[in-house]
Design goal:
With 320 residues, the protein is of the alpha/beta class. It contains 11 helices and 14 strands. It has helices at residues 15-24, 35-44, 54-60, 76-93, 111-117, 162-174, 190-197, 211-222, 241-247, 261-274, 291-299, and strands at 3-10, 31-34, 64-71, 103-107, 125-127, 131-135, 146-150, 180-184, 202-207, 230-234, 252-258, 275-287, 303-310, 313-319. Helix 1 packs across helix 4 (76-93) and helix 6 packs parallel to helix 7. It is globular, with a radius of gyration of 21 Å. The termini are far apart.
Length: 320
């Protein structure tokens, strides 16, 4: 198996937060390169050497890096998108830029290459009892299932990830005709568009990444869903009061959040305000070792109806 070396550029102050967010999405093998630590080590241990190799000094230049490796397989594009999502989450709270630029760099395969190479792994996929996911470069077979056509681009959400599958399986049982849906952290738009295909009347989707707006609209159009039923917005609902006011003009029958544990914990109170009485909140994208924390946060505002596990991931279905 090939591996992609992935590097997040940050600062000494940002190491703990970056590593913590990577843990939240199931990445637990990280390597730290911190120029400040290296220079401090050189300064305070001069008695151990007379000469330091210039190549080593040059190698250690470049600020602080958090390094990890991702398998070059069918999950690569979604894993990269998930990493980008948590970096955007950190940027939204790091208003003083203490964590540096939080940029992501990959080695061995350039971004343009892996953005296309992963397509060889993404094939037609059946989920639950009703949905068939079909990438635009494949031809859907004759089927009684509801076909969702998708071109995910660089956004999270192809249906292959455990957390996305669990959400879709729950939506099959939850969505009713004329339901209104809110999809927080929509990525490719998969959950909100699938909700509409399952019979929801209308949906609002939002994501912290502005690139997701046109990607979600494009995927909706591939499935003959347009802006009369579907609205996509960009922004951070946790910190943007104007965005929250805009989406809270009404309450929703179903609220979906396939994000990460920290965001769901922070989102719980607002999610309750956005969900109709008797409505459903589906939370997913929760790594298993954070499940208890998320449940405790949700219990303050919802009644938990179901906790489901797939692989190392948890989804939680709540009632308001």
């Amino acid at each position: 198996m090939n591996w992609i070396k992935s590097i997040i550029h940050t600062t000494s102050a940002g190491i703990e937060s970056v590593v913590g967010q990577l843990l939240n999405i199931g990445i637990n093998g990280t390597q730290i390169e911190d120029e400040a630590d290296f220079n401090d080590f050189l300064e305070h241990n001069k008695e151990f050497w007379d000469l330091v190799d210039d190549e080593l000094v040059e190698q250690k230049k470049g600020g602080t890096k958090v390094i990890f490796y991702l398998a070059d397989n069918e999950y690569l594009a979604e894993n990269i998108a998930n990493v980008k999502s948590v970096l955007e989450f950190l940027k939204s709270f790091d208003t003083e830029k203490k964590y540096g630029d939080l940029s992501l760099e990959t080695e061995s395969v350039c971004e343009e290459d892996w953005a296309n190479n992963w397509k060889k792994y993404f094939k037609i996929l059946e989920i639950g009892n009703k949905i068939l996911i079909c990438p635009v470069w494949e031809t859907a077979p004759e089927t009684e299932r509801i076909v969702f056509k998708i071109n995910p681009g660089m956004s999270f959400g192809t249906g292959t990830h455990h957390s996305t599958k669990m959400c879709i399986e729950e939506l099959e049982n939850i969505i009713k005709p004329d339901d209104s849906v809110l999809d927080i952290g929509c990525g490719s738009g998969i959950l909100s568009v699938v909700s509409l295909l399952l019979g929801a009347k209308n949906a609002v989707a939002l994501d912290i990444d502005p690139n997701c707006v046109h990607i979600a609209y494009e995927n909706a159009a591939l499935n003959n869903i347009f802006e009369d039923r579907y609205t996509v917005l960009s922004g951070n609902v946790l910190s943007d009061d104007d965005l929250f006011e805009k989406i809270s003009q009404k309450k929703y029958d179903v609220v979906e959040a396939n994000i990460i544990a920290d965001v769901i914990i922070a989102l719980a109170e607002k999610a309750a305000k956005l969900t109709k009485k008797g409505g459903t909140f589906i939370a997913s994208g929760i790594i298993i070792n954070r499940a208890d924390e998320v449940e405790e946060a949700l219990k303050k505002y919802f009644t938990i109806e179901k906790v489901k596990q797939s692989g190392e991931w948890i989804s939680i279905v709540c009632k308001n």
